[in-house]
Amino acid sequence: MTPVKISNDITIGSGRLTLIGGPCTAESKDLCLEVAGFLKELCAELDIDYIFKASYDKANRSGATSVRGPGLDTGLGYLDAVKSTYKLPVLTDIHDSVTVPEVAEVADVLQVPAFLCRQTDLLVAAGKTMKPVNIKKGQFMAPEDMKGAVDKVRLTGNDKIMLCERGSSFGYHNLVVDMRSLVIMRNIGVPVVFDATHSVQLPGGLGNASGGQREFVSPLACAAAAVGIDALFCEVHPCPEKAFSDGPNSLDFDLARKVLTKVKQIYDMQ
């Protein structure tokens, strides 16, 4: 497995657990700073490396009128504020190859959303930035087939690649997690990330929005840690019921502390 260097202090796949965490949508600068500050302090307490995440645009919302986020310029400004205030690396989603270079000027890690994990132009554009790339496994993809996505990035000369498990479609409005996928994807030669909060989504479960079962975040995250992960991905919001997106599967601060504490204990036993 090829470890992925994120910054001078963080290398995913080096034997230290990393959290990729933050609100689903970069709702405001104040929210981003609040979540980043809390998680930075918590991760320092638990001896976990930390990368802040938030999306400036949620391009695949369930409803036509759903809130998508602050947009490219404003959203990148929020991420830059987190970087400058807390000296943290930041991750955000990319959706089209045209905007990738601009996003890469701010983001330390580029994330390819699950629905776009086969989009060759997007993967190649991400690879050409030479920034670390986190590719989410599509809900419709077998884990071994993610080698194709990895190869598309590698052909650009960029070997800083991670694969992220976030559940597989199981009938309508439901996802299941096959923990074998973590082993299979790591055998491709890249660090693996487990997205504990998106894995409990109920896609389209609320009609014009996705539902979620956050009560299953902790057991799934613990199971993934026992199987073997290099990073844990969690969406965290101070008040999930008021979140612009993914509220039903996001963790509040108390739950985030409980989940991370248990996951770290299991990780350290491996």
Description:
Helices cover 33% and strands 18% of the residues. The protein has helices spanning 29-46, 72-86, 100-104, 120-128, 147-154, 180-186, 217-227, 253-268; strands spanning 4-5, 11-12, 18-22, 49-53, 90-93, 109-112, 133-136, 161-165, 168-169, 175-176, 192-195, 201-202, 211-212, 231-235. The strands form four sheets. It has an eight-stranded parallel beta barrel with strand order 3-4-5-6-7-8-11-14, surrounded by six helices. Strands 1-2 form a two-stranded antiparallel sheet. The chain has a two-stranded antiparallel ribbon with strand order 9-10. Strand 12 and strand 13 (211-212) form a beta hairpin. Helix 1 (29-46) runs parallel beside helix 2 (72-86), helix 1 (29-46) packs parallel to helix 8 and helix 4 (120-128) packs across helix 5 (147-154). The two termini are 17 Å apart.
**Continuous helix count:** 8
The largest sheet is: 8 strands, parallel, barrel
Instruction: Work out the strand percent.
Output: 15-25%
Q: What order do the SSEs take from the amino end to the carboxyl end, as H and E?
A: EEEHEHEHEHEHEEEHEEEHEH
Overall body shape: globular
Average pLDDT works out at 94
- Global Rg: 17 Å
Give me the secondary-structure category: alpha/beta
Strands ordered across the widest β-sheet: 3-4-5-6-7-8-11-14
Low-confidence stretches: none
Q: Terminal Cα separation, in Å? A: 17 Å
Q: What proportion of the residues is helical, as a percent range?
A: 25-40%
Number of strands: 14
